Amino acid sequence: MKRSERKIQHLNSALSLTSEFNNGLDDVQFVHHSIPDLSIDDVSINTKIGELNLSSPIFINAMTGGGGEKTTQINRRLASVAKECQIPMAVGSQMAALKDLDEEKSYRVVREENPNGMMIANLGSEASVDQAKKAIEMIQAQAIQIHLNVIQELTMPEGDRNFRGALTRIERMAKELNVPIIVKEVGFGISRETARQLADIGVSVIDVGGSGGTNFAEIENDRRDQKLSFFNDWGITTAASIVEATQVSSVSIISSGGLRDSMDIAKSIALGASATGYAGKFLKILISEGEEALIKEIEHLKHHLKFIMTALGAKKIEDLQNTPVVISGDTYHWLNQRGIETKVYSNRTING
Fold first, then answer.
1. Where are the beta strands (DSSP E) in the chain?
2. First-last CA distance in the chain
3. Which helix (H) or strand (E) holds 245?
4. Nearest-CA neighbor of 60 among 219, 297, 317, 252?
5. 216 is in which domain, residue-wise?
6. Contact of 284 with 17, CB cutoff 8 Å
7. pTM of the predicted protein model
8. How far apart are CA 213 and CA 89, in angstroms?
9. Phi then psi for 47, rounded to 5 degrees?
10. Residue 206 placed within a domain
């Protein structure tokens, strides 16, 4: 099967999935503060991941490209939304365009549509430094995602089976590329051990891509004759992944994986994330309701986040990262078994 055909299959599967997965964030509850002494007009949602300054913690995460005209038009529309909302956008894996120059248009369109916006390139950990440079140049990107998708590849009928040397290749990119590297999981979460490995080779931004969102094992299993169904429930939830990754203090964390609303954004930040990425939810709104509906959704997410921060007395993102939360349920059990002390989160204060 051609790579472009596979891209379309992935898109169609992502749009048709109706299963609901647990991102773990329902296990997180804010400690109510009755006297926040704050006006919503005082609240700023500006944030920073690594060297990148963002006007809000929301961005359009990697989705597609490399699937001909259909993916070209989806990326054009997403770029238009990103421009209107002034948020960053990541494209899907550009390996398709590196192997077939005819597919470059499906990626270059984002820069044509949004000439001054923040664009994030994307390749897998199998890529070389030279390939990464070409991907960055293709869309004049200000950063590049290097995605980790071992479980997806193993489940994919025609996927990779050899994952040797990934850490070495990422280290070379961290040293030789002139834009920040964001290492991203694709739905199975990041452990503190993985976060530490990445930090040790110079990676400064990690997108945890926790379980709870688009399930690529399920998508690939739908394409298999002999199912690897044991991978459908694989992974670390988004909530647990954020806490795991923040045990390594030298990296900025992006939360992604089944985020639903502004409360999920706020909880992600309270657990230690500095930004949040949306993919499947935004894609479904774009396809079913259109660009204007997606723009409204993003603006609502921003505004509702300010409401939550006001209620908590959090004037800025750094305050929200120090707001007390109580962690319970499966997330508490996971973190407890992993030796991570959760009372640190419940007994902190914004000013303390």
1. 28-30, 47-49, 52-54, 58-60, 89-90, 119-124, 143-148, 181-185, 205-207, 252-256, 275-278, 325-327
2. 57
3. helix 238-245
4. 297
5. 3-346
6. no
7. 0.94
8. 18
9. -150, 180
10. yes
351 in a domain, yes or no?
Answer: no
Nearest CA among 152, 223, 143 for reference residue 187: 152
288-338: pLDDT as tens digits: 999 999 999 999 999 999 999 999 999 999 999 999 999 999 999 999 999
Residues 6+ apart with CB under 8 A from 337: none
Domain count, the chain: 1
Question: Would you tell me the crossing angle of helices 280-289 and 291-312 to the nearest 10 degrees?
Answer: 140
Distance, CA of 301 to CA of 261 (rounded, Å): 7
Q: What is the pLDDT of residues 99-142, one digit of tens each?
A: 999 999 999 999 999 999 999 999 999 999 999 999 999 999 99
Token pair belonging to 108: 């270059």
Nearest to 21 by CA among 285, 210, 297, 266: 210
Q: How far apart are CA 225 and CA 247, in angstroms?
A: 40
Helix 166-176 / helix 129-139 crossing angle, nearest 10 deg: 50
Would you state the structure tokens that stand for residue 31, as one six-digit string? 């400690």
The answer to the question of residue 352 being in a domain is no
